[in-house]
Amino acid sequence: MIHAKIAIVEDDHRYSDCIAELIRSVGYEVLVCRTEKELEQIATFAPDVVLMDHDLGFSTGDTVAKFLKLPKSKLVSISNGTCDLSYCQCGWSKKSIFDLSPSESVRQIVCKNLLDMIEKVATSV
């Protein structure tokens, strides 16, 4: 595993805390942004990968990514509800839609896939 900085933009603390704990447990440095105000920290944090929820309470992932001028190559789209592939046409990593399922076996697969995706995106930047 390479050392990488990961930003998580997710307004639901249950999901952002879970994802952050998983990512920190394998050695990544993590910044969690749950509010519009917290997004200001992303520029100084300079993440290698940004995990972005699409349906934020204060905006959409597409709008936030454009506002922050984040390169599409750094973005990984995450979803805490049912997977809706319709919003993945924005050019983000198309193979990176995750459904955080309450089922333990599915959750283990999703966690491994998420970590694999972070590694892949971080090494390609």
Automatic annotation (TrEMBL):
Keywords: Phosphoprotein. One of its GO terms (biological process) is phosphorelay signal transduction system. Residues 5-125 form the Response regulatory domain. The modification 4-aspartylphosphate is found at residue 53. It comes from the Bacteria. InterPro entries: CheY-like_superfamily, Sig_transdc_resp-reg_receiver. This is Response regulatory domain-containing protein. It comes from Candidatus Taylorbacteria bacterium RIFCSPLOWO2_01_FULL_45_15b.
